[in-house]
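Wait, can you check?
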Amino acid sequence: MKAIIPSAGLGTRFLPVTKAQPKEMLPVLDKPIMQYVIEEAAAGGAEEILLVTGRGKRAIEDHFDRSAELEQILSQKGSEWLAAVQQVAELPQLYYVRQKSPLGLGHAVRCGAAFTNSEPFYVLLGDIVVPRRDILPKLAAVYAQTGASVIAVERVPDELIDRYGIVGVEPCKELGEGCYQVNALVEKPAPDDAPSDLAIMGRYLLTPHLMELLENTTPGEGGEIQLTDALVALLADEPLYAVEIAPQASFDTGNVLSWLEANITLALRDERYADDLKELLADLLSGERAHD
């Protein structure tokens, strides 16, 4: 299995910190966002991973390269961090291609056409963190039974529906609990026009036909080619399935508040930080550690 990770965005919601720093390299606890995503792809069975990048993303390549000098220094010091640094460079083979113009998610995925070489492939959005790495195996299990494309979906409140691609579905209990066949997709609908409250959440297992459809997908608003439009076209030719994920199985790090939520939530789940962070938050909320 191969995986494509689109990561060419400018990160404007995090400016000015992302002026020279890729948003994918912002930390969540002690690892950059992109490391979580690549480790998840590897855990899902991806042996080759393509990162679709843009200008100013060189730090991503440097992070996943081997640093012989740093490893030597850590080894000489007997540092506990040596294994963690070596592990980063031992992830599956990474490839890079640039999306030269910001023409949308569909265009970014299409940049990987030669890489996937008419094979099924994962797509993982680079600002979604899945700490338990359990979503891709669920998609793969449905694909193994159906041979069709599968997407991950998550229930969202009505006030957030117009931020996402929303699917209409029919239950498929024969595939397991929380599995559906998709019968409609609408990009960012008004709540009253949405076919459900199930939103596409950034994890896909797609058949080669989807890549063919992207080649002929008409650009939409802003001249961008949308992946959702290609999925709509796919519905006319092939079945499409969805797997519902549990609440807080994934974390969106696409804006400052959601990034902060990811850091705090995962820190509270981590025994290294949980007790001290709870005490700190309690003090801050009570005003005992208030700062001007």
